[in-house]
Structure formats: structure tokens, C-alpha cells
Fold each of these.
Amino acid sequence: MEKERIETGIPGLDKLIQGGFIKGSTILLCGTTGTGKTIFSCQFIWHGLEKGENGVYLALEEDKESIIKCAQDFGWDFKKYINQKKLIVESIFPSSLEEIKDTIREFIRRVNAKRFVLDSLSVATMGWKESESIPIIRRSIFELAKTLKDLQVTSILISEIPEGENKLSRLGIEEFVVDGIIRLHYLEFTTGDIPRSLIIRKMRRTDHETDIFPFEITEKGIVVKKG
Ligand SMILES: Nc1ncnc2c1ncn2[C@@H]1O[C@H](COP(=O)(O)OP(=O)(O)OP(=O)(O)O)[C@@H](O)[C@H]1O
Ligand SMILES: [Mg+2]
């Protein structure tokens, strides 16, 4: 299989992962609240739009306008591309993962999207409890990832981590199904140094860097500093 790379659009990140995400791969973007998951994902979508790759941003908790405004703050004019039918930003309140999968399929086909963001997978799997059958849950998440693969989009699935927890996902299953994992950190009570950092926790078929890399949120978005 070819390893065509999709640039992330985050300055400093691509060189840590051999040029970008593998085309068609599914990446879990983990972090506690306010670590920059939504900004990172908007930046990924924006970079694609500027390169002629259409996108879909599906929000499950945040309303559509707040995603558009978040992008606008960094000068990323999502509305322009929505009007040109190259981008869909939508917020839905689904009743099942089936419904989410159907919506994703429809949206991605509608604009022939090459990049997709689900904000967030944690909300998508909210209907399940840890006590439910692990094989069934695992299969459902696998099928979601397979849906995205079949559509040949490169995807970011956002994973919200509760404060103080050392998990990568809500159920502890999601990380095994995805191709890559990037974790964003925010260090409280620090003085001087940049409080934000990221780690590439997994990137299948990629000889990736393993250090902790500080990053900043600038007026142009996220910028990874040299480690
Ligand atoms: N214009 C800006 N310049 C610098 N930093 C900013 C700017 N806008 C937001 N931030 C920082 O980014 C944080 C929010 O980032 P973002 O919305 O991507 O987080 P998140 O991980 O998606 O959070 P949540 O889990 O609550 O959705 C803010 O708390 C703030 O620290
Ligand atoms: Mg967010």
C-alpha cells in the first residue's frame, strides 16, 4: 500500500511524523478541556481547504456557529468555503452511532471531502456504558473507523479526557481501533515555560518522534516548537 502523506497544517508537526498523516488514516486527538483540540482540528480542515481538499467538521456538542467563530479568530474563513459547497460544518444531536455514521457518509459524499473531523468521539460513544459488552462496543467503533476508511478520508476523532485522568479515551477501547494518536497536554501551575505540549503516542507505519514537544497557540493557530 502506498503511503501518501496528508499535511496536517500545523507548523512543526509534519516533520515529526514523516510528512503528515497517511492518507485515509484515522487519528485520535486526545486531551483534557482547553488543550486546543478544536483549534488543531479547525487548522487541519483549513489547511486542506487552502490546498483544494474539501472538508467536513461534525460537532456533537458545540454548536456550528461557535466552531465557525473559533476558526474565524485565527483568520480561517470557513464561511467562504461553506458557500462554495467545499466545506460542511454541522452540529447534530444523534440518537445512535448508526445515525452518526449515516450523517458522516452523507456529508462526506455531498462535498467529496478529503478531510473529516468528529468533535467528539467521546460524545458519540456516550450512549454506551463501560458495563456493556466490550466486543460489541469495539466492533461499533471499528465500523465507524471502517466507514471513514471506505470513504477514503483522512480523519481526526477528538477524544475528551477528564481532568486528572491518564486515559487516552473514554472507554479505553478507541485507541486500539485508530491508526494514530496525538495527545495534547496543558501543564497547570507552571512559570516561565510554555504550558502546552504534545506527544505522538502512536502513528502506525510511521517512524515518528517520541519526545514531548511544546507548542503555542498563536494568532495563526497552533505552532509546534522544537523540542
Ligand atoms: N486566539 C487565541 N490565542 C491564543 N490562545 C487561544 C486563542 N483562542 C483560544 N486560545 C486557547 O485555546 C483554548 C481553547 O482551545 P480549544 O477550544 O481548541 O480547546 P479544546 O481542547 O477543544 O477544549 P474543549 O475540550 O473544552 O472543547 C483556550 O482555553 C485558550 O487557552
Ligand atoms: Mg473543543
Amino acid sequence: MFKTNGLLVSLEGIDGCGKSTQFELLQARLTELGLPLIAVREPGGTAVGEGIRQILLQASYSLTTEAEMLLYLAARAELCKQTILPSLRENKIVLCDRFVDSTQAYQGYGSGLDLNWIKQLNWQVTGGRLPDLTFVLNLPVEEAVKRRSNSLDRLEMRDLNYHRRVQQGYLKIACQEPERVEVLDATMTKENLFTNLWRKLQPFLNCIIK
Ligand SMILES: Nc1ncnc2c1ncn2[C@@H]1O[C@H](COP(=O)(O)OP(=O)(O)OP(=O)(O)O)[C@@H](O)[C@H]1O
Ligand SMILES: [Mg+2]
């Protein structure tokens, strides 16, 4: 579990499940403890990545699924090379609001692109470095819709069945990689959810605190 440098942690789950809320709580706790931390969100985090984010979120574009997936991967390639991999080499904690599993869940399970193709591309752009720990925040699609704001962007406007496939996709990923992926019940209050998340993360922090 502690073979590589640094600690790569990702937060995953359908839109509105509470990732960014937990991301902020986690960022605050780790900072309080004085641990070396880089926090990134996908897509984005680099100049090119933020540009790609704008393209992806604009409701007026109708992109093919292939182009959409490749744009996510292009943004990830930039982020990995510029920020994530160098930070891990410096033995930092890298916290990602979405990462490789989002592409599998959304463009793979949700939109039907070949899962192995996505896996290969992910492998290449990340230099084969998977997260050490991934939290999937598990929330029924209906609950997530209720939590989201009224202004839905292009990605959020897709139908409920699409989001159900994404949700199921996340659970399949967790079944395939139980060592890496931890599914958390996201129906609870944000405080209780954070308590559970923190409990699971703590053993992994040993590799940073030397
Ligand atoms: N545990 C919780 N219980 C109830 N509401 C929550 C909880 N966590 C977050 N929320 C609320 O749900 C909404 C969505 O949360 P958040 O933005 O963290 O989700 P997200 O997974 O980051 O969404 P997106 O994928 O769209 O970025 C926010 O209004 C947030 O305040
Ligand atoms: Mg968010």
C-alpha cells in the first residue's frame, strides 16, 4: 500500500453527491494538521485544463462522446505532468475532486465508450499512477438531483437513466478494485460522512508523516 511516493486521494460520485463539500472539509483538516497538500479539481487545474473545462461545461456545444472523453484526458495529461506527478515525487498529499474513475463511470459506463480504451488512455496520461485511495460517495440519483441547484450545465442536463448508469458504474469499479476504492454512504449529514471518510483515510497518512 505504501510503495510509492506521496499520497494520491480522489473523491468520486455522481453530480451533487457531495464531493466538493467533503473535498473542502478534507482540505481544511489536512491543512490544520500542517500536512503538505495540493488540491486539484478535474477538469481544470492548469491553464489549458481550465480552457478545456469551459468547453466541456458549455451547454451550447454538442460534442461527440469520443471528443468529450479525449478532452477530459487532455486536461488530465496536463494536470498529471504539471502538478500531480511532481507533487507526489515531493511526497505531498494530492487531493483530487474527480480523477480517472470519472471517465470510466461517465464516458464508459454512462455513455458506452470502450472501458479498456479509457483504461489505456488513463494509464498513459497518469504514468500508471492510480490513486492510493478513492472515495465513492454513494447517493441515489434522485437525492443528488434534489441537492443540485436549478442552473444545470450541459453535463447535468442528461437524463436520469444516464446518471443511474454512471452510479452503477462507480459501484462496479468499487467491486473490481476493493483495495483502492471505498464506497461511503453519502445520504448522511456532511459531518457524519466526513467522520467516516477521515477514519478510512487516517491509516494512509502514515506514509506522509515520517
Ligand atoms: N451530506 C450532505 N447532506 C445534504 N446536503 C449536502 C451534503 N453534502 C453536500 N450537500 C449539498 O448538496 C449540494 C451538492 O454538493 P457538492 O457541490 O459538494 O456536490 P458535488 O458532488 O461536488 O457536485 P458536482 O459533481 O456537481 O460538483 C450542495 O448544495 C451541498 O451544500
Ligand atoms: Mg463539485
